[in-house]
Amino acid sequence: MTIAERRRLTDVARGAAHADLYVRGGSLLNVYTGEIYPAGIAAKGERIAYVGARDDMVGPRTRVVDARGQILVPGYIDPHVHPATLTTPAALARFVLPLGTTAVVADTLQFWELGGLAAFRRVADALRASPLRFYWMIRPHAQSRAPGEWRRFDLTALARAMAHPSAIAIGEVTRWPDAWRGDRELLRRLALARGGRVEGHTAGASAEKIAAIAAAGFTSDHEPITAQEVLDRARQGIAVMLRESSLRPDLVGLLDALKTAPALASRLMLTSDGSMPAFIRTHGFVDHLIRVALDRGVAPVDAYRMATLNPATYYGLDADVGGVAPGRYADICLLDDLSAPRPATVIARGKVVAAGGRLLARVPEPPWRRVFTSAEARLAVRWRAGPGDFALPARERYPVIKLVSAVISRLEERPMEPGDLHAALLDRGGRWVAPGVVAGFAERLDGFAATTSTDFNILALGRRPEAMARAVNRLLDLHGGIVLVDGDQIAYELPLPLGGIMTRGTVDEAAGREDELRRQLVERGYPHHEPLYTLFFLAADFLPAVRLSPRGVWDVKQHRILLPSRRRRPGSQSSP
Q: Residue 494 CB: number of other CB atoms within 10 A?
């Protein structure tokens, strides 16, 4: 904050100048003291100048917001968000602002993988004007190991990204085994973290391994799935984000950690992680997390702190956000009742941005044509797939990827059986293909293709190679998305023309298309609860036990290739 800004705030606080906005008649939940008491709030520009009983800073041009009978709480903060899950970050902001979320700490993986440092900067710069405040965690590595990875995640480029004014952490770090072993390349990247904040992903790490992971630099984690795992991490100084998402709705059980360690209430945070549009449409966002905590019996002041002051303090942002106090940004939710976290009115950056569930503010859209500039990032490519791309080498037994849940797999080495699907990961540029066999997905699936993979190549599945090729080629015509083929017919398609990962539509529109995809896959035998995450993580080589990767079918635990990838045959390429 500049000296001039501070002077304007102090003038208003003294009553020597008029406020731009004044909230009158409400009762403030003070997250610093735990009290609830009557208070007016005066804002000048984007920040709060005064909190108290006086109103002599109200002038003829001051906008007065009537909060009689309402509770005033800070705007909500989600400390771990994947902002490009089918919709754009701006579309997400438009949906969650009326729900009370005024700040997020967001992942950069998609932008970095598809456009590097320049893409991240263009997105971050465009969204700095958003009424929903975007902070960023910078990814230090890919989701799936491939040749050239450290060139893409170059130390100098990562350091430049961390110098961006909105970048506040390194994360999400999924390779905790590398950190545990003291891998030099990873530790060099963790050392770039501003304020030492490293957001970790330690799924599967035993309690005994947490000490070394913390010593390597991990300062937070959002992956505990039991109350005991929350305690294991918190006891080693790791701040824990309790997750309630479309993939893992674990919050009710995680809150039981407070029964053993009540002081944890000052360290815990709430996150929706990467919830899909349909889940957000149905349940809400951070408001839903607070509601779950309240229903579980968490004291209201603790529940609201977990979604406001705690994440702000953890990230070192508490001088700006997380509370209603002079000098902080004027991000305020007006609630009809403390037991109902969805606000009647939302103030962000000192302006009323939503009322009655309706967005009133403009959210800028990043210039996507300047974000994704290469032909491969736009999927404006000329190669096309053929049935031969999905041929498996002649073997009696194959390393079958058997899905035992939406995202967890096990290895079965055996011949192909009825119900197994041909599978392949195809390079965006058409240079290579990694064939495999998947079981437990949808046994009556002819052909299917998607670019919603965390390694950003093309995933194809099906029982008929001809239908798989048709799905891939239609996907390329759409410049990315999801395509399902029955025989010779397109049965479903979801265009994702922005990098192959995002639609230009709203959260509501994406949720409707997601519902239809789930219905189509369930009709064909999909037995799990979250098909989009299945697609996302089939190529994510940090999850057990076997995955498709650019190197081939990969044994995660043994770090070995079970079925290698191959170069695509030139004869399988053709012009569109």
A: 22
Quick one: which of 455, 458, 483, 456 has its CA closest to 470? 483
From CA 155, how far away is CA 137, in angstroms rounded?
Answer: 15
What are the DSSP calls for 325-375, one per residue? STTSB--EEEESBTTB-S-SEEEETTEEEEETTEE-S--PPP-HHHHS-SH
Question: Could you check whether the bond before residue 365 is cis, i.e. omega within 30 degrees of 0?
Answer: no
Q: Domain 75-324, what architecture?
A: Alpha-Beta Barrel (3.20)
pLDDT at 575 over 70: no
User: What does pTM read for this prediction?
Assistant: 0.97
Place of tokens 């999850």: 543
Interatomic CA distance for residues 576 and 382, integer angstroms = 6
Q: Phi and psi (nearest 5°) for 190?
A: -65, -30
Of 338, 315, 295, which Cα lies nearest the Cα of 220?
315
Burial class (CB in 10 A: 0-12, 13-18, 19+), 24: middle
Stretch(es) of the chain classified as CATH 3.20.20.140: 75-324
Exposure string of 293-314, with b = 16+ CB inside 10 Å and e = fewer, is bbeeebebbbbbbbbbbbbbbb
Per the CB < 8 A criterion, the answer to whether 69 and 342 are in contact is no
Q: Are 269 and 310 in contact (CB under 8 A)?
A: yes
Q: What is the pLDDT of residues 423-479, one digit of tens each?
A: 999 999 999 999 999 999 999 999 999 999 988 999 999 999 999 999 999 999 999
Report yes or no: 158 and 127 within 8 Å, Cβ to Cβ: no
